[in-house]
Specification:
Layout: E1 2-7, H1 15-25, E2 29-33, H2 44-49, E3 52-57, E4 65-70, E5 75-79, E6 92-97, E7 100-106, H3 116-137, E8 142-147, H4 171-183, E9 186-187, H5 188-192, E10 218-222, H6 224-227, E11 230-235, E12 251-255
Parallel strand pairs: 1-2, 7-8
Antiparallel strand pairs: 1-12, 2-4, 3-4, 5-6, 6-7, 8-10, 9-10, 11-12
Helix pairs in contact: 3-4
Length: 257
């Protein structure tokens, strides 16, 4: 089985890129972030024509998450995280697919920091950590996939000082990611590539793609039962180089049946 996560950065604007990648990569399950479209504008017919069923939580012009399943319909199990009834941002969705509980997340960016956006980022990650601990305790096959908007380690960003004040690399942000690992979740990409410098995002500005000035923001964390089945992981970097591409590349894992 192949599971992928992809910050599409506008599903309707990048629809041709998405459909082309689905046809080439043939993932069984896909988590999408930054749909930037309300539910009524979700391109369901095009997704279905590509062979995928979908559940989603859309939001106009911003955020939005979806889970796609090849030749099947995901069974929606949760939308949103507990702990803040006032939070209406479309950032978290869960579904059951082929015996796996799939969680798709788009964490807050948190910039500028310090400030209210950074406070919201950390509070959102606290809510995620609480829910993740509950999921891990169930001892089920679970994947937490998406754009965490956290660079876990210094080696996950190109050599630069321009991000020193950025919310993505702050100690508090990295500690939030580390809390998930401490719970027992496995960073699948890092498990398969323990020594490599890995990037999943390249900003459009300052020729960062051309210079390979990237960051690792997109992660797939596996529960104990899925960790035992992990056989491979990678980044489809070439997708970032397509015309009209998202500023993220898809990340994928393969699991033993």
């Amino acid at each position: 089985m192949k599971i992928a996560t992809f910050n599409i950065n506008g599903i309707n604007r990048r629809l041709d890129n998405l459909i082309a990648w689905l046809g080439e990569a043939e993932p069984d399950i896909v988590c999408l972030q930054e749909l930037k479209a309300p539910d009524r504008q979700f391109p369901r017919s095009a997704i279905e024509a590509a062979g995928y069923g979908a559940v989603r939580q859309g939001q106009s012009a911003w955020n939005g998450v979806a889970i796609l399943a090849r030749d099947s319909e995901p069974v929606l199990t949760r939308v949103g995280l507990d702990g803040d009834p006032s939070d209406a941002e479309a950032r978290y969705i869960e579904a059951a697919v082929s015996g796996i509980l799939v969680a798709c997340l788009y964490a807050p960016n948190g910039n500028p920091q310090p400030g209210p956006k950074f406070v919201y980022k950390l509070a959102w990650h606290e809510r995620l950590a609480k829910h993740a601990a509950e999921l891990f305790a169930l001892d089920l096959p679970v994947v937490l996939a998406g754009d965490y908007n956290i660079v876990p380690e210094p080696r996950d960003i190109y050599p630069t000082t321009s991000y020193d004040d950025n919310a993505l690399v702050q100690p508090e942000s990295r500690a939030a990611f580390g809390e998930l690992l401490d719970q027992g979740w496995l960073d699948a990409l890092r498990k398969i590539h323990p020594k490599d410098q890995l990037f999943t995002f390249w900003d459009y500005r300052r020729n960062r793609w051309q210079r390979n000035a990237g960051l690792r923001l997109d992660h797939m964390l596996l529960s104990r039962k899925l960790s035992r089945k992990l056989t491979g992981a990678g980044i489809d970097r070439e997708v970032r180089g397509m015309e009209g591409a998202s500023d993220h590349a898809p990340v994928w894992i393969t699991l033993r049946d």
